[in-house]
Amino acid sequence: MASDAPTTTEYIQHHLQNLVVGIHPENGFSVAHGADEAAAMGFWALHVDSLFWSIALGSLFIWIFKKAADKATAGVPGGLQNFVEMIVEFVDTNVRETFHAKNEVVAPLALTIFVWVFLMNLMDLVPVDFIPRATEAIGIPYMKVVPSTDVNITLGLSLSVFALMIYYSLKVKGPVGFFKELAFQPFNSPNPLVQTIFVPINLLLEGVALLAKPISLALRLFGNMYAGELIFILIALLPFYAQWLLSVPWAIFHILVITLQAFIFMMLTIVYMSMAHENH
């Protein structure tokens, strides 16, 4: 941190600062110390902590599910197999109820998103000083452990979903059909001249609605998790007895929040993929 006894503002800024690595105009390739240096590094700066924890948690997800698959048995299943089967069945039920086309990618995609986002959100329950203080002791100045509180991570997820949505829209409807979907609704007319006038208006409205999907998907997850993290940081500034009095109830409530946000991200992904497969 900035000093042995940081002020409240310094404490909050420290815990909200990512470990950013990039090329600084004056310092060259270095670690950013503060938001100003991070901003000066520009677009290609890397949030190393967010990347590390998101990859680590994704690998944990693959390892757990692979271990359950390797030990799966038709007889009496173990606890891990029961747990994994429960999650798979939950996701599969939601996919079947929402997505009515035929695509073998959607169910695995929904499962990956639900579990991965849940694991990233779950890191918010780790005490706010536990990992940052441990990494600071070995010379790493900043360490944010909740990847979903980094808008770059949530935008990366949502833009990946958006790219799949555009790909399947073009594949199912064709370029002409996809253009007609954007150009001929919500306003249409049997009169060709009137319809021609409506085309630019429809393109503007539908284009804004289309681009709003990945942005809203990313910002919804980011905003909820960032607010939750900030509350945990504010609680950590209180006296010790007040921390336990407030952090435990908030953590219990936050379990619902992190699960709900993972579920919403998954369901909106399924809905968007379903819309991409609708051929009018």
Question: Characteristics of this structure?
Answer:
globular; 280 residues; mainly alpha; three-stranded antiparallel sheet; 71% helix
Descriptive overview:
Helix 3 packs across helix 5 (106-122), helix 4 crosses helix 5 and helix 7 packs parallel to helix 9. The model has no long low-confidence stretch (mean pLDDT 93). The chain contains nine helices and three strands. It has helices spanning 8-16, 35-40, 48-70, 79-98, 106-122, 130-137, 151-183, 192-236, 240-276; strands at 20-24, 28-31, 46-47. It has one domain (49-129, 146-276). With 280 residues, the protein is mainly α. The chain is globular and about 75 Å long. The N and C termini lie far apart (58 Å). It has a three-stranded antiparallel β-sheet with strand order 2-1-3. Helices cover 71% and strands 4% of the residues.
Structural category is mainly alpha
Biggest sheet features:
3 strands, antiparallel
Tell me the β content: under 5%
- Helical fraction: over 70%
In whole angstroms, how far apart are the ends?
A: 58 Å
Which of globular, elongated, flat, extended, rod-shaped describes the shape? globular
Numbering strands along the chain, what is their spatial order in the largest sheet? Answer: 2-1-3
**Assembly state of the chains shown:** single chain
> Quick check: average pLDDT?
93
Runs with pLDDT <50, length 5+?
Answer: none
Number of strands: 3
Could you tell me the radius of gyration in angstroms? 23 Å
- Any idea how many domains? 1
H/E series, N to C?
HEEHEHHHHHHH
What is the overall number of helices? 9
